[in-house]
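quick q for whoever's on today - can somebody do inverse folding on this one?? i tried earlier but teh output was garbage lol. tokens:
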């Protein structure tokens, strides 16, 4: 079995990536639900404060057209955001 991110999230499939990190489909083992996890690349650690502000700002939003923010943290010095998983087409598709 693959290691869990933060002893909770099982990464399953890479959904996409960009300059600062990548997004994964994952399973929240505690709440037994699918989630999306955005991982900040280690070399982008200087952006950690901006990443934290993104998590705080998104966590305050509550709107049907905005994905929900569930969690934020770091695991082995890698920052992550846990968000509502929305199945569908990517912008690239």
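ok took a stab at it. sequence:
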């Amino acid at each position: 079995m693959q290691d869990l991110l933060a002893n909770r999230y099982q990464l399953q499939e890479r959904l996409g990536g960009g300059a600062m990190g990548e997004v994964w489909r994952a399973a929240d083992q505690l709440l037994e639900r699918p989630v999306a996890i955005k991982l900040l690349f280690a070399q982008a650690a200087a952006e950690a404060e901006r990443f934290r502000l993104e998590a705080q700002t998104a966590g305050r939003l509550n709107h049907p057209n905005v994905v929900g923010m569930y969690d934020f943290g770091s695991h082995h010095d890698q920052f992550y955001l846990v968000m509502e998983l929305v199945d569908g087409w990517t912008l690239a598709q």
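fwiw The chain has one domain: 9-84. also The two ends are 31 Å apart (CA to CA). so keep that in mind when u check it
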